[in-house]
Give the backbone structure.
Amino acid sequence: MAKPIPAVSAATARKLANTNRVIYPVASPIVKWAGGKTQLLKHYTRLFPAEFNRYFEPFLGGGAVFFHMVAKNPNLRAVLSDSNVELINCYNMVKNDLASVVRHLKKHRNDKHHFYKVRAMDVNDLTPAERAARLLFLNKTCFNGLYRVNRKGQFNVPFGRYENPKICDEINLRAAERALCNAKIITANFEAVVAQAKKGDFVYLDPPYQPLSTTSSFTGYTRNSFGCDDQVRLVEVFQKLTDKGCFAMLSNSDTPYIRELYDGFQIETVYANRAINSKGDKRGRVAEVAILNYSPDDLT
Ligand SMILES: C[S@@+](CC[C@H](N)C(=O)[O-])C[C@H]1O[C@@H](n2cnc3c(N)ncnc32)[C@H](O)[C@@H]1O
């Protein structure tokens, strides 16, 4: 059960939110994830529906939009999912057994030899709490905070050589534990979860993006990449949500193909600072789209 935190650092104090009598820090994403939406929230807030019932995020990743939503409404009922088994186990363990996760996380250290030993571990030999701690540790200490696996499903990002990464951010993890307490967290393909959404629910879809060019095809979050067939299945899901009376918003790259797929829906252009080459060491301002099946108040 989550407990109030009596004292926080100056940095965290800036993020404080006041709920009834106890002051809680607001949670930010617990993992850094490719395609993370934190930087776009300032453009997105005016696009979200003002009121809705449940919140669905079926391509959860780092969950930047979810953590933003739950900070605004601590009673938010959410259904969160992703096809990445390790990621979903991590969120479930933070929600249900944070003490064990923190205990294991504190055993890890930012050392190259230790990193490669932990990276090589077979997750099937670990408890769910150890697996969650392993994912958090690798995410904080690997190169660029990427999640990437090889064909055999083994995590293969190299050591990141960071000076002093915060491997165990206990304050933020406790805030995340509270943020997740009303959430159902599931490993699943997007279609299965979105089928549960009902009229008045809000579904935010952030799939792996359609590549801008053949050289920028980073869709390798897991073994199964997200191809054109998946983009087509997704637009069908978007249409079904519209027919059911759900609010749906989807992010993707700004390409003629995506604009054609969503022709007839409201398409907003937003700009993000993203890696613009496959090695991720060159960044630039890249146009993306936010596609809506409703008219938000601010835009009418
Ligand atoms: C662009 S990332 C989401 C980024 C996230 N919104 C954030 O702020 O960090 C896409 C996510 O979709 C997941 N994914 C890929 N294919 C999927 C599928 N078929 N069904 C569900 N999730 C999938 C990946 O594991 C990845 O976490």
Summary: Strands lie at 16-19, 22-25, 55-57, 78-82, 183-187, 202-205, 247-253, 266-275, 283-292. The domain at 31-83+188-300 is CATH 3.40.50.150 (Rossmann fold). The radius of gyration is 19 Å. The pocket of S-adenosylmethionine is lined by residues 33, 35-37, 58-59, 61-62, 64, 82-84, 189-190, 206-208, 221-222, 226 (CB under 6 Å).
